Amino acid sequence: MGRFRCWVLLLILLSSFNGMAHYKPNPEGYLVTYQPGKNWQANTIYKKQKGINQHVLYIKELYRQGKINLSASFKDDHLEVLIMMGENQEDLKKLLSKDPSVMDKVLDFKMKKIILTRVHNLMPDHHHTGH
Question: Which residues belong to the signal peptide in this entry (predicted)?
Fold first, then answer.
């Protein structure tokens, strides 16, 4: 995935943090990208890949537990993106490594530390400046 597409997606995802009750100013988190793994079947659509149903259930459970804040995927390729919050990257990696599709090497993931910033926090506050 190109850097531009990644940043555009990240900005879109960040905008959804606006109303979240557990949002803290500029929290640190992790951007997780999934991509096809060693056992990905090249001529098989995403929904028909081995273990994908279990992967989806696993991701939903992590979301229910509050480990995943956001999940998104691109329509034109097999990439999936997660935003996870947590202090310990190794603990989050262990959780993701238990994903059935990762264990079966159908999917692989990469994780990068990020700082979340709401776009409106970057803009001047016109209410207080009189503009």
Answer: 1-21
Residues 10-25 have pLDDT tens digits of: 655 555 554 454 544 5
Alpha carbons 74 and 58: distance in angstroms, whole number: 19
Q: Evaluate whether 73 touches 79 at the Cβ level (below 8 Å).
A: yes
22-46 burial, b for 16+ CB within 10 Å, e for fewer? eeeeeeebbbbbbebbeebeeeeeb
Every domain of the chain and the residues it spans:
26-117
Buried b (16+ CB within 10 A) or exposed e, 108-117: ebeeeeeebe
In one-letter notation, the amino acid at residue 4 is F
CATH class, range 26-117 = alpha beta
- Asked whether the CA dihedral 119, 31, 89, 101 is positive or negative, the reply is positive
The overall pTM is greater than 0.70: no
**Cβ pair 99, 107 in contact under 8 A:** yes
